[in-house]
Amino acid sequence: MPAIAHAPSADAAAPAEAVGPLTRGLAVLRLLTDAGGRLGLSELVRETGLARSTVDRIASTLERMGYLRVEGSAAALAPRLMELGNAYLSAVRLPDLLGPHATRLADLLDESVSLAVPDGDGIRFVHQATRRRALSLSFRIGDRLPIERTAPGPLFAAEWTEAAWAAWRERRAVDPEDRGFPAVPPRSGAPVSDLSDLADLVDRAAEAAQRGWAADDQLIEPGLVAIALPVRDLVGRQVCAVSVVSHTSRHSAASLAETALPRLRETVALMEAELGRPTPPLTPSAERPAEWSRQSKQELGAEFVESLARGLTVLTAFGEGRAELPLTAVAEATGLPRATARRALLTLQHLGYVAAAERCFAPTPQMLALGFAPLSRLSLAQIAEPHLAALAARVHDSASLAVLAGDDIQYIARVAATRVMSVDLRVGTRLPAYATSMGRVLLAGLPPEQRAARLASADPQPLTRRTVTSAAALAALLDQAADEGHALVDEELEDGLRAIAVPVRDRDGRAVAAVNVSMHAARRSLADCRALLPALRATAAAVETDLHTAGRYARVEPV
Ligand code: PHB
Predict the structure, then answer these.
(1) pTM score > 0.90 for this model?
(2) Measuring from atom 2 of ligand 1, which residue has the nearest CA?
(3) How many helices (H) and strands (E) does the chain have?
(4) What does each C-alpha distance from 358 to 160, 226, 323, 362 come to in angstroms?
(5) pLDDT of residue 448
C-alpha cells in the first residue's frame, strides 16, 4: 500500500472545484456530532453562520438520506449515519481482523482493551472491548482524544514529521484546554508552558520508540491508567495501537505494564499475523445509486440539495475489499458521472475525509467524526422510540418494545396512544412472558433447549378465564408463533386486553426484542387486530435496519 498523503490543514484554501453544499452539510454533521448528536436548528444557524433557509435545506436533505431527524425545532443524528463510519471500519478491516484478539486479551486480563489509530494530532478509537469499573469515562468507537494525553500517543508521535509537530504545537497554542476534543474533560489547572509541553511529548515519544510501548498515567482523568503497544503491518508501519486500560484502584501505570506486557506482546504478534492476510476481493457496494438522488430531487425540489446527497454517497463507495478506489470505481459504485464523483472526492480530500495516494482514494479515520460516537451510545430502546411513535400515530393504539428478562418480559420503550388503558405499562414494567404477545414471540425465538427450559421453569397461572396454562398447549402456541412470525394474545393477561407482537432480530437473526400493538378488545375484532401485521412488521424492519447499522461494530445495549 503506498503512503497516504497527509490531509491538508483545515485553513488551506479550498480547491476551485470544491462543492460548497457538501462542505456545509459536513459542517452541520460535525457540529451535531460534537454536541452529542442533537442541536436546535437555531443553534445550528448561529454556529455555522449560514442562513436559516440553508440550514433547513441541509436538514431536509440529510433527513431524506436517513442521516438526521428533525424533531420540532431540533435536529438529531439518526442511526443510518453510522453507515459512513462502518464504511471506513470495514475498509480498514481493523475491528474485523484484530477485534477478536482484543476481546480475548480483555478476557485474559479482565481489563478494558481498545484499538486506536492515529488521526492528525489525536488518536481515534476503532474498537473497544470494555470492562469498565471505577472509571467515570468510557470511550466509544469514533471518539478522538488529544494525542499527548493518551498511551498510544507517544508511539504515533515518534514517527511524526516536522510538519506534524508544528501542527500539534499550533493546536496546543490555540486550544490549551482541549475544547476541540468533546470526549475528554477539559484540562484544568495552570496552563503549561509551550516549551515544557513540547519537551514532555518529545521525551515520551523518544522513550516509547526506545522501549516499544508507552503509558498514560492519569493524563485523561484521575485514576485512569493505560499502556499501549503498536501494531505494525508487513512493511513495518504502525497501523494502530492496542491499549490495556485500568484504574489506580487495581494498578499503577508501572504495575499494569508489569502484569499486562507479556500477554499484550503475544496479542500484538497474533494481530500482526492477521494483518498479513490477503485483502478480500473487491465486492460490489453502494445501494443508494444516483437514481435515488434524482428521484428525491423531483419529489422535494429545493428542499433536496442534490450535490450534498451525492457527495455523501461517495463515502459509501468504500467498504470491505474497497479500501482504495480509483475515481472510476467510485463513479461506478455510486452511479455518479465521473466529473461529479471527482469534485466530491476533491472536496472530501480537502476536508480530510479521504486521502489520495497515487491514483486512488482511501477513507480516513475522520469519517468516524460523522456521528459515529454519539450514535453508538444509543440503546435499542432509543433506536426504537421514533419508529414506535410513528406506528402508534399510524394505528392510533399504543406501541411497545420489550425484552426477555428471565420468565418475564420487560418493557424497554413504549409510546402510548392517547386512549386510557386499564393496565399501567410504563417502561420497566415486567409481565409474565407466557401470557403476553411479546413474551410468546421472544420465547418462540429461543433455541429449542432454552425454550423448553423456560416453559418448564414458568409456573403459568390463570390470570383470566382465557389464560393458556397447560405446558403442552403453550408449547404448541410457541411453535405456531415461530412458524407465523407473530403472536396474538387475546384477553389472557387481562380481561379486555388484546395485543399482537412480532420479533426484532439482531444481525445474527436472534430475536432480541419484540414490538407490539396493544388495544382494548372492543376496539378491533381479531381479524382487524391481525390486519395490523403489515404495519407492525414494517416497524420491526425499520428498527432492525437501524439496529444492524448501529451494531455492525458498536455494541447496542437494550437500555
Ligand atoms: C481507552 O481505551 O479508554 C483508553 C486508551 C488509552 C488511553 C486512555 C483510554 O490512554
Answers:
(1) yes
(2) 114
(3) 20, 18
(4) 21, 37, 14, 11
(5) 93
